[in-house]
Amino acid sequence: MGIIRIYLALCVVAAHAGQPILPWPMLTSTEAVQIFFLISGFYMSLISTKYKTALEFYASRFLRIFIPYYVVLGVVVLLTVLAGLTLGNWLDLTPYIEYSSNQNGLAGTIIAALSNLTVFFQDWVMFLKHDPGQGLSFTTNFAASATPLYKYLLIRQAWTIGTELTFYLFAPLLGRLRTRWLILIALASLGLRIYTYQVLGLFNDPFSYRFFPFELLLFVAGMIIQRVYVRTLAKWPQVKLQNLLQYLIFFAGLLLFFYLVQKAPPYLRRHGILKQYVDLVFYVGWLFVIPFFYHLTRELKTDRFIGELSYPIYLVHLVLVQVADLILTRLSVSNAWLGVVSALLAVSVSAFLFVTLFKPIEERRQDLAHELSARWAGFRKLRAAQAPPPSAPSQ
Fold it and tell me: How far apart are CA 300 and CA 62, in angstroms?
């Protein structure tokens, strides 16, 4: 599963670089992100039994998501300041450097700026606009704004993390529901998507893959397929890859699989399936792929390490694409190398950050989550004990 996760992250790198990493076309960033949502639902259902309380689950997710995010945010700011001071290019800080009320209203700018710190609501920014002379309002097409508010996001791709966090808020509750209720929630999400697409005519970005009520279908589908996995494939004998050679053969087979898989969406579009539903049809196949590859690689430490790099790669890659572009331009190297150079930089920086900073936390994350949740529960009990008793009703 780790190879699939890092492949999906590299698909996003290639999409944002606008240049290939592999000798053949990879999945689009939209496809990669939504498959990540499926995998997230699968994993959240898988690990839900590890935590005694919802508070412990939230603490674990905080350590998993926010610490790497804030570290990478610091890296982004540092690289951006260095590029600005040395080359005069302020990269992701440019909208702040050049800000004026003639570009965006203050309220929208503040909301977008604060979401860099909260991580929550970054996906909401894609549904807001605050153009000069207008009030802050919702928009059905953020790209139509004179200066879209998403440009104030320092890690622009982290809007997906905002969507993930919304799912995590509901995950403990969803995990306790019977499968029949999960199926009903998935069908409701799909029905809402179809209604919005067909009746309201809202089927383009950001409604195509940024609207949480629609994406809930994918998260819940991942949870459902994990429950099916537990009842079926998980009971089969574990197939283990014994050595590096077998793992490399497995990797070569995956490359062939990815090459064939990326042909599916164009094929479906050529054969008359409505454009806005092609990706959903494509994801049905991944519902079978995800549990199979998880079962095959779940005990492989190498594969687990590779998978751990996917999150930092996803977070840090966009600023590294910009840095790589600056370097190649100054060295007069063809822009055709931008994808490969960006991928190498992203993998190298992510591996360094994971080994030096994130891995020690990951190794103790469950214990730390238990300690944090216990302290918070104790704090809440203390506050409740110190609260004055309710006054007696007047006679």
Answer: 26
Backbone angles phi, psi at 274, to 5 degrees: -55, 135
Measure the CA dihedral 281/283/287/288, to 10°: 80
Q: How confident is the model at residue 152 (pLDDT cuts 50, 70, 90)?
A: very high
Alpha helices in 136-178 (DSSP H): 159-176
Q: What mean pLDDT value characterizes the chain? A: 88
Cα–Cα nearest to 33, from 121, 157, 135, 165: 157
**How far is 281 from 317, CA to CA, in rounded Å?**
29
User: What is the C-alpha to C-alpha distance for residues 82 and 94, in angstroms, rounded to an integer?
Assistant: 13
| Contact by Cβ (8 Å): 324, 13 | no
| Residue 189: burial class (beta carbons within 10 Å; 0-12, 13-18, 19+) | buried
Of the chain, the end-to-end C-alpha distance in Å amounts to: 68
Token duo for residue 98: 């050049």
CA distance 63 to 358: 10
Quickly state the pLDDT bin for 279 (edges 50, 70, 90): confident
Q: Which residue has the tokens 């930089």?
A: 345
Q: At what angle do helices 2-17 and 310-330 cross, to 10 degrees?
A: 30
- Angle CA(208)–CA(214)–CA(218) in degrees, nearest 5? 100
